Amino acid sequence: MTNRIKTALISSSILLLVACENNQTIYQPDPQKTEIVQTDMGYHLDSILTPYIIKLRELTDNPAGLAVGITRGDEIIYAKTFGYENIELGKTADLNTVFHIASVSKPFTAVAITKLIQQGKLNLDDKLIDHIPNFEMKGDN
User: Fold this and answer.
1) CB–CB of 97/83 below 8 Å?
2) Predicted TM-score (pTM) of this structure
């Protein structure tokens, strides 16, 4: 892998974090809460998605934890968990459950970088130090 590609990948990961940062309060649901359904749209989604997800999970015999969240603007209109955070202990998933997402974040990073490029906030030829002045690569002078 060339240095240019490595730098672009590192830059994109860091820029994703910077681009997604905001100063708003992060929503912290009540412990053990398993759903949020708000607005007419949220209730409509609930009437369609919840039965579908439950049926699909029954057909696949899959008790593993799953969380679905849908927002409109800054508002959570539908958030619901299904299954177990820990199957062996019978601990159900809730809105505070931390899921291991593995490589699923790569497409989100790519989309975020693309949006930043489209908005003119980033250029693929930019150096990381242009956006994060205190960043230093080992061996740079």
Assistant:
1) no
2) 0.53
Strands 66-72 and 35-37, bridge-based pairing: unpaired
- The answer to whether residues 35 and 70 touch, using CB atoms and an 8 Å cutoff, is no
CA distance 113 to 126: 12
Neighbours of 137 (CB within 10 A): 12
Q: Tens digits of per-residue pLDDT, 97-136? A: 888 877 888 888 889 889 999 999 988 888 888 888 888 8
Are 23 and 67 spatial neighbours (Cβ–Cβ below 8 Å)? no
Compute the radius of gyration of the chain from its Cα atoms: 20
pLDDT in tens, 40-99: 888 998 898 899 988 988 999 888 898 888 888 888 889 998 999 999 999 989 888 888
The predicted structure's pLDDT at residue 5: 52
